[in-house]
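Why do we care about 3D structure at all? Because function follows from shape, and shape follows, mostly, from sequence. That is the central idea of this module. The next example makes it concrete: a single protein chain, its amino acid sequence, and then its structure expressed as tokens.
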Amino acid sequence: MDENTDKPAARRTVLKSAAVGAIGLVAGLAGGMKLQTSVPRGAVTLSNRRRFDGKVIAITGATSGIGRAAAEAFAAEGGKVAFCGRREAFGEEVQNKIRAAGGTATYFRADVRDESQVKAFIDYTVSTYGRLDVAFNNAGITVEKPLHEYAAADWDDVINTNLRGVFLAMKYQIPHMLAGGGGNIVISSSSNAIATTEKRSAYSASKRGLIGLVQSAALDYAQHGIRVNALIPGTTDTALVRRSAGMEGVPDAVWELALSQWAHSHVPGLQRVAQPEEIAAFALVLASDDLPYMTGAQLVMDGGKTAHAG
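And the structure:
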């Protein structure tokens, strides 16, 4: 998940402000008015390559958004996917969809803030599929408010999910990779690690902290055949972004119009947000064996949003 990262001089309010005009369209929609503007979408289809045949993949935060898209893509390429998340109904839905398409996937309910649950998830993955080759540590949340308005519990919740949760996942993933002779770990950071805006101090701190974690861990395990890299996505059309914008209850067409208007002003490159499948496709590249010389890297895929940051 990722959101606005504009400099103050160019900044507008985030999606809530873009929504002000769009909300006025609700009545028109109810009366049958047709919207002519929606979110431009990247054309992404599941690959017919088989880069993950026989490989076991563990994914955190895969009940929706980028994680869900990645679970489906890994399975489509022959991977045996174990994934976790807190929302059981969504987890079972993803599991069933992958299996119906002929893939191999198992959902395990786990909260990455709880060490015992993270360990249980990784142990279950290995006991079910026999090994662990790839990890995509993607679980993340945000709480947005001025810094002094954060309760300590708000801060802890974001840091414990986004940063500590990745540490815990890697703590229990790495021994299995060492035993298996190597592996690939991909971490979801955020363009907020590069340039951020107001009300995201906890989120930005957690996502920037992940860069340091990736760089150090990559050096810890490079000689053991384990590569560790950070994926830095830009704003992506996910439920988390929609929820943080306060637009869960509006019609989809209004949400898409607001998102399109926001992206036109805040993504100076492609002027659109990403689709989860686009970010997931890049995660698979990083998790594959196609880039054997890459470790400790931070790879940006944000449509040009942070190209002006400096």
